[in-house]
Design goal:
This protein has 83 residues and is mainly beta. The protein contains one helix and five strands; from the N terminus they run E-E-E-E-E-H. It has one helix at residues 78-81, and strands spanning 11-19, 22-27, 33-36, 47-57, 63-76.
Length: 83
């Protein structure tokens, strides 16, 4: 999408969550949820990370994110879940 002008082009920061459909990344700034392409990077549920990659729409218009690398590991999402 050409109209997006992001400071970190193609990077998303958020928490990795386990769902019935696999891993999802919940973006912090926009509270958007992306299905993560399996096997592309090594992340686990509960990780707070900044990932670089490509956003797309999957089956049924679901938001997908295909990470190419972990930019930063920012610790755990545990403290956030307590709020």
């Amino acid at each position: 999408m050409l109209f997006l002008a992001l400071h970190h082009h193609g990077a998303v920061t958020g928490c990795v969550r386990q769902t019935d459909d696999g891993l999802r990344l919940v973006e912090e700034k926009k509270n958007k949820s992306y299905a993560l392409e399996p096997g592309s990077v090594d992340v686990k549920p509960g990780d707070r990370v900044e990932l670089k990659g490509k956003k797309s729409s999957g089956n049924g218009g679901a938001q997908m994110f295909e990470p190419t690398r972990v930019v930063k590991s920012l610790g755990s999402c545990g403290a956030e879940a307590a709020h």
